[in-house]
Amino acid sequence: MNKDQALGLTISIGSIAGIAAYFYLTFLSPWTMLIIQISAFAAVATILAIASWIGYTLSTTPPPTPIDDTEKTEKET
Fold first, then answer.
1. Which end of the chain has less Cβ packing within 10 Å, N or C?
2. What is the DSSP letter of 31?
């Protein structure tokens, strides 16, 4: 097994373990409500952070320079 396959196997096993842990915490533990609240907060915060990043990028990017009409007509002929 090469290095990439070992890394892939490790990621797969870790993901399955994470799913099992999340299932336990969500359905079988006494902290179910807290886990659901934290999960919902993380999901909404991630979406809003991405929207904020897009807004910041749009507001700080300079507008493109306009193409002069005379240069445009000269290039067409």
1. C
2. T
Q: How many CA atoms lie within 13 A of 21 on its CB side?
A: 6
Structure tokens of 1? Answer: 């097994």
Transcribe 45-70 into DSSP letters: HHHHHHHHHHHHHHHHSPPPPPPPHH
Taking the C-alpha atoms of residue 44 and residue 55, their distance in angstroms, rounded to an integer, is 16
Q: What is the pTM of this model?
A: 0.67
- Give per-residue pLDDT as tens, 15-67: 999 999 999 999 999 999 999 999 999 999 999 999 999 999 999 999 888 87
